[in-house]
């Protein structure tokens, strides 16, 4: 699936820049792995709208909860596709592609990066889904976040050979679709009333739990995945 015209054209075009500037490569590498440039801005914006539009008539909080549910479902689907779908090597580990030197960067040491399926991109899935939810609250802010996601999250991962353009495209479509479905009135009715009751009766506990959830989303569930990987090691294979 990776060897199509779009992927090959974009990867070959970006390859001309990988050996030009060590500082540039290091900046891109930092941005691609930094929560400061990924999850934190999104969660800051979500919490801004959460407190700005506290009136239930605005439906903002309803959309935020639906967005968080949608993005978690989208990431779950993406990870399921990663694990059960046909294996597709990441571009930097694909021996069928020309080897590109990233001046100033070390060779990736994590063996998981070499064996993980690249399709679809869970980063694109998560952050395009969050941008979609914010777009439903504020079109201007959402549009800016779509652009931000493309420049600071999607493009660096393609440039560094972590994903193909089609991985990003598929992840973005998946995230957008899941949040669009989760914000439908018929879906919100399944849990909306109970959620509102919990918030009304236990506002401190509800928002504290919501903060923890948004923190985990902002860090791509890093602590949760580390915990699960540690637990799995104790089970015999």
Your description of this structure?
This protein is mainly alpha-helical and 237 residues long. It has twelve helices and no strands. The mean pLDDT is 88. It starts with a helix and ends in a 5-residue tail after the last helix. The protein has helices spanning 5-15, 22-33, 39-52, 60-84, 111-115, 122-137, 139-159, 165-182, 185-188, 192-201, 203-218, 222-232.
Primary descriptors:
237 residues; mainly alpha
Radius of gyration over C-alpha positions, nearest whole angstrom: 19 Å
Poorly predicted runs = none
Number-wise, the strands total: 0
Distance between the termini: 31 Å
Mean pLDDT: 88
Beta-strand percent range = under 5%
Share in helix: 55-70%
Helix/strand structural class: mainly alpha
SSE succession: HHHHHHHHHHHH
- Please state the overall shape, judged from the principal axes of the Cα atoms: globular
The major beta sheet can be summarized as: none
| Number of contiguous helices | 12
Task: Lay out the secondary structure.
Elements: H1 5-15, H2 22-33, H3 39-52, H4 60-84, H5 111-115, H6 122-137, H7 139-159, H8 165-182, H9 185-188, H10 192-201, H11 203-218, H12 222-232
Helix pairs in contact: 2-7, 3-6, 3-11, 4-6, 4-8, 6-7, 6-8, 10-11
Task: Summarize the model shown.
The chain has 237 residues and is mainly α. Helices cover 69% and strands 0% of the residues.
């Amino acid at each position: 699936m990776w060897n199509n015209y779009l992927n090959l054209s974009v990867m070959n075009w970006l390859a001309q820049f990988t050996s030009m500037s060590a500082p540039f490569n290091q900046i891109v590498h930092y941005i691609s792995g930094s929560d400061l440039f990924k999850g934190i801005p999104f969660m800051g914006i979500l919490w801004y709208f959460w407190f700005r539009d506290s009136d239930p008539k605005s439906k903002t909080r309803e959309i935020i909860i639906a967005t968080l549910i949608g993005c978690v479902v989208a990431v779950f689907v993406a990870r399921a596709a990663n694990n059960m779908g046909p294996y597709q090597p990441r571009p930097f580990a694909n021996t069928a592609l020309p080897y590109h030197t990233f001046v100033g960067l070390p060779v990736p040491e994590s063996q998981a990066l070499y064996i993980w399926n690249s399709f679809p991109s869970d980063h694109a899935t998560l952050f395009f889904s969050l941008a979609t939810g914010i777009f439903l609250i504020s079109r201007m802010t959402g549009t800016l976040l779509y652009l931000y996601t493309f420049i600071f999250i999607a493009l660096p991962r393609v440039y560094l050979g972590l994903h193909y353009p089609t991985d990003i495209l598929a992840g973005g479509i998946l995230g957008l679709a899941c949040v669009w479905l989760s914000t439908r009135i018929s879906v919100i009715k399944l849990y909306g009333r109970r959620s509102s009751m919990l918030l009304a009766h236990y506002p401190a506990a509800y928002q504290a739990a919501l903060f923890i959830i948004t923190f985990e989303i902002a860090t791509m569930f890093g602590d949760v995945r580390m915990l699960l990987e540690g637990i799995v090691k104790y089970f015999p294979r």
